[in-house]
Structures are given as C-alpha cells and as structure tokens.
C-alpha cells in the first residue's frame, strides 16, 4: 500500500481519546471567566465625601433685654476651637424675646404708664401679693394723678410679711430706672433710688407705697415687658 497506507486502528484511537479529553477542558476554560461558585465581590469604591456640615459658628450673638427692660443689648459669646469650625464664617443669632407682662393686681384705670409697669412687674415677681391699690382721692397728688400704687402685704406685721415688704422695696429700688421710681415708703421709712433712707413718722405699715414719675397716660399702644 506504500505511503498511503491506512492508519492502524490503534493510531486512530489515540487522537479520538485526546479529542474527548481536550473538548471538555476547552469548554471549562472558555466558560470559566464568567462562572463563579460564589458571587464576586464588587471592587470597593471610595465613599463620596459628604458635604461639610454647617457646624457651630465661630460665635453667637445673644440678644436679650437686661434687667427685664425693653432695650435690647447684644452680647457676643466666643466658642472654643473644638466648638467652632473654621470652614464656616456664619454667625448664629439667638434672640431672647421679652415676654409681655400680664395685667396685675392693680386696677389700671387712671394710672400712668410707668406706674402700670411697676404694678404689673411687682404682681408677676411676687405672686403672694393679691391686692394693689391705684388711683384714689388723696390730699397729695400722687394717687389721684396715677403716679402711685399701694402694694398690700398679707400678714404685714408678721416676720414673713415684714420680710416680703422688704423684698418688694429692694426689688423696686433695683428697678428704679426701669420704673422711673421716685420713692418707696414702708414701715415708717422713706426710700429713694439714690440710696437714701429716712426713718420717721412715714406710716405705711400694712403696705409698700411706690411712687413713679409717671411717663404720661396710656394711649392704648403700650407694651409692658418683663
């Protein structure tokens, strides 16, 4: 048969076996790039930087009414380095809005504005007080003109009553400028805002008498603030 003799059965069998082994392997490697027994973990991406928070400002302005008055004052309060963030230059304004004083124990008809303010403030500061006299006939002009009030003291002769009257006098003198206070009278002593105190036959053992400089009669648009 020469050079064109047919291959022996044994020689044909070896390539067939090799082909049977190579084919599954080829399939395995071809598919292996997409096949995983467990889901592949995604490559971690750096988290986006969150926008800078607007932290506490460098300082705060507190707007308040000193001494309960209606005139506003601004106080700047500095913050520590831990509290303040240099990335912000904003300022916070914390506003303390003064509260309105409710009508107190005094009948306000005929009283002038500073006298009304004093009466309402005393009523709010001393809830023990239940009776305050205002306008009434008198030989002196203070009560008839709405310039004075009488703060009646419960159990005025007791140690508790005397202490309460003393506190009311001290409160009125402390707020003398706010009330436009002219004087206070209590247990025979006449007090003035400049620190004067004269003892004598001034009476007023059952109430504290407060005289203001008035400020004019109300027009209806007044705000009485704590």
TrEMBL record:
Supply the InterPro entries for this chain.
ARB_07466-like_C
Specify the domain of life of the species encoding this protein.
Bacteria
Q: Which Pfam family name is an example for this entry? A: VldE
Residue span, ARB-07466-like C-terminal domain: 109-196
Report the protein name in the record: ARB-07466-like C-terminal domain-containing protein
Q: What is the lineage of its organism?
A: Bacteria, Bacillati, Actinomycetota, Actinomycetes, Mycobacteriales
């Amino acid at each position: 048969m020469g050079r064109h003799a047919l291959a022996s059965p044994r020689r044909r069998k070896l390539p067939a076996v090799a082909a049977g082994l190579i084919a599954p392997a080829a399939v395995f490697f071809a598919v292996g790039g997409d096949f995983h027994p467990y889901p592949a973990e995604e490559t971690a991406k750096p988290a986006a930087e969150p926008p800078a928070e607007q932290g506490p400002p460098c300082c705060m302005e507190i707007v308040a009414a000193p001494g309960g008055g209606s005139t506003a004052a601004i106080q700047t309060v500095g913050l520590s380095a831990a509290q303040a963030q240099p990335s912000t230059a904003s300022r916070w304004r914390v506003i303390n809005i003064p509260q309105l004083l409710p009508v107190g124990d005094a009948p306000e008809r005929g009283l002038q504005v500073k006298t009304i303010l004093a009466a309402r403030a005393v009523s709010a500061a001393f809830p023990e007080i239940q009776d305050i006299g205002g306008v009434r006939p008198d030989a002196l002009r203070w009560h008839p003109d709405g310039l004075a009030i009488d703060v009646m003291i419960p159990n005025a002769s007791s140690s508790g009553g005397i202490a309460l009257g003393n506190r009311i006098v001290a409160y009125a003198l402390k707020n003398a400028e706010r009330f436009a206070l002219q004087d206070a009278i209590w247990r025979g002593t006449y007090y003035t805002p400049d620190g004067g105190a004269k003892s004598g036959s001034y009476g007023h053992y059952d109430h504290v008498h407060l005289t203001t400089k008035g400020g004019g009669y109300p027009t209806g648009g007044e705000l009485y603030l704590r």
